[in-house]
């Protein structure tokens, strides 16, 4: 039973460790990925050299093949690069077909997700290339990145390797090359920028200014609010279990603080957010960018726009928000043309709720203590029916009705609580969260678990009145019921 419970709790924690700030692929992006998979070309390895600290000094050599794309006036070339740990990742270059002279370069950095293909950024790459840039959309690593493991420093190093390929393209002016990061890429791109002085500018879209755990909890809060969920289950979904997952080490980079890195950026920055972003707090992040980045920073919001600045939001968009690509193109032309803009910021949007910091768990909230309590509860509730069965086979009398109900409600309620939390977290995705029918804002399954918890509470109180005459198995059962009460209060089972 201890092994089973440990596995169940681990599964539960994995649900909490969903990537911070997920940016799901749209229908158009998924279709582009399918085309890419079926029409992939062979590429040669470009070793971008050792990790860069001051400048990206190693030259990158790559074999490319120009092809025709569906975007009018553009040409492409497939490239590859090698990461520091030996992975070979591909990518595609997009550039104006009839441009003359060397152009500004722009490397795109993915949002969250394991093994994202370059094609998921194809729309951005095409639209930015139409603005007169050479754009590299790379693949994202799959090895060393998962819901349970990721390293922003490693992802930044991957970006530097890809940047070396872009910078060394003959059609790119190396003095006019920069980096663009989407969502999680807003944590990664600043790290890359501070390690390489030959990255001349940075653009972020939906860039987070807060730590991942706090950002993801705010993201979940919005999902829960949109779904109409109320009551104690809100705190469970928005707060307690995220802290549990982070404490157990199952939420990667949970407490990464982006502020020290932002303070080191000397390159000009363009930071863009959708005013209706519900995955990253746009107003709070913008406040941090404006107060922290020491150099030129331009902050813009797009009214009515979602997180990734796709016109259709989460519902299968196929176009960028109007004016987005043009804003990027105009700003890059100014910066690379020697016209460094003075820092400026649009008025902050009306963010519906402020994010809440999630402190690290106290010892009694930690996963070790919680797992121990879980094992003790099940053992206490299981002892009574097992002992009663043995006693009955020997011809002894059965137990009292309060004890029977207490054992049954505890044995059913605790595992059902685990199942309910796993299923609730599992139903959350980029679209929101769907917990099925609600009654007074509470999921039906959650109400069933709460009913069992209140039954356990009441029968514990009744059984405790018979403590003096109780047998050992009944006293063990009552002790389990007493331990259950603070545990259930912490997880909201005994709260409205």
TrEMBL record:
Residue stretches making up the Peptidase S9 prolyl oligopeptidase catalytic domain: 124-307
Ranges annotated as spanning the membrane: 367-390, 402-424, 444-464, 476-493
Signal peptide: 1-27
Keyword Signal: yes
Keywords: Hydrolase, Membrane, Signal, Transmembrane, Transmembrane helix
InterPro entries, alphabetized: AB_hydrolase_fold, FrsA_esterase, Pept_S9_AS, Peptidase_S9_cat
SUPFAM superfamilies registered for this protein in UniProt: alpha/beta-Hydrolases
PANTHER family named among the record's database cross-references: DIENELACTONE HYDROLASE DOMAIN-CONTAINING PROTEIN-RELATED, POLYKETIDE TRANSFERASE AF380
Family, as annotated: Belongs to the AB hydrolase superfamily.
Name this polypeptide is given: Prolyl oligopeptidase family serine peptidase
Originating organism: Microtetraspora glauca
């Amino acid at each position: 039973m201890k092994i089973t419970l440990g596995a169940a709790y681990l599964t539960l924690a994995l649900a909490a460790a969903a990537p911070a700030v997920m940016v799901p692929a749209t229908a158009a992006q998924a279709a582009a990925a399918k085309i890419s998979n079926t029409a992939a070309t062979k590429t040669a390895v470009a070793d971008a050299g050792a990790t860069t600290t001051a400048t990206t000094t190693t030259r990158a050599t790559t074999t490319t093949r120009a092809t025709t794309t569906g975007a009018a006036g553009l040409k492409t070339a497939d490239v590859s690069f090698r990461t520091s740990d030996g992975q070979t990742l591909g990518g595609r270059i997009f550039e104006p077909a009839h441009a003359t002279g060397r152009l500004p370069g722009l490397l795109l950095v993915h949002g969250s997700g394991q093994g994202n293909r370059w094609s998921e950024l194809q729309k951005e790459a095409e639209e930015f290339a139409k603005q007169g840039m050479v754009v590299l959309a790379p693949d994202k690593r799959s090895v060393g990145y998962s819901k349970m493991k990721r390293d922003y420093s490693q992802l930044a190093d991957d970006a530097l390797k890809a940047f070396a390929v872009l910078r060394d393209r003959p059609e790119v002016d190396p003095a006019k090359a920069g980096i663009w990061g989407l969502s999680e890429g807003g944590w990664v791109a600043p790290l890359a920028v501070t390690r390489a002085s030959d990255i001349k500018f940075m653009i972020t879209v939906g860039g987070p200014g807060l730590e991942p755990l706090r950002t993801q909890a705010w993201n979940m809060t919005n999902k829960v609010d949109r779904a109409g969920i109320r009551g104690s289950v809100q705190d469970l979904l928005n707060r307690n279990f995220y802290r549990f997952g982070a404490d157990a080490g199952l939420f990667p980079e949970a407490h990464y603080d982006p502020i020290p890195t932002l303070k080191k950026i000397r390159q000009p920055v363009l930071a863009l957010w959708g005013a209706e972003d519900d995955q990253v707090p746009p107003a709070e992040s913008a406040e941090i960018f404006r107060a922290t980045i020491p150099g030129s920073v331009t902050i813009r919001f797009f009214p009515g726009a979602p997180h990734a600045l796709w016109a259709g939001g989460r519902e299968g968009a196929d176009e960028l928000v109007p004016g987005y690509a043009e804003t990027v193109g105009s700003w890059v032309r100014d910066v690379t043309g020697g016209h460094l803009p003075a820092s400026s910021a649009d008025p902050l949007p009306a963010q519906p709720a402020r994010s809440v910091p999630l402190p690290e768990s106290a010892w009694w909230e930690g996963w070790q203590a919680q797992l121990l309590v879980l094992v003790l509860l099940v053992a206490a509730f299981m002892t009574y029916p097992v002992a009663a069965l043995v006693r009955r086979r020997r011809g002894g009398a059965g137990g009292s009705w309060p004890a029977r109900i207490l054992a049954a409600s505890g044995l059913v309620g605790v595992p059902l609580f685990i199942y309910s939390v796993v299923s609730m977290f599992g139903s959350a995705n980029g679209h929101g969260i769907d917990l099925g029918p609600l009654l007074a804002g509470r999921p039906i399954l959650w109400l069933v678990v709460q009913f069992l918890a209140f039954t356990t509470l009441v029968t514990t109180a009744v059984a405790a009145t018979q403590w003096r005459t109780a047998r050992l198995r009944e006293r063990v059962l009552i002790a389990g019921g007493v331990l259950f009460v603070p545990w259930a209060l912490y997880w909201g089972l005994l709260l409205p």
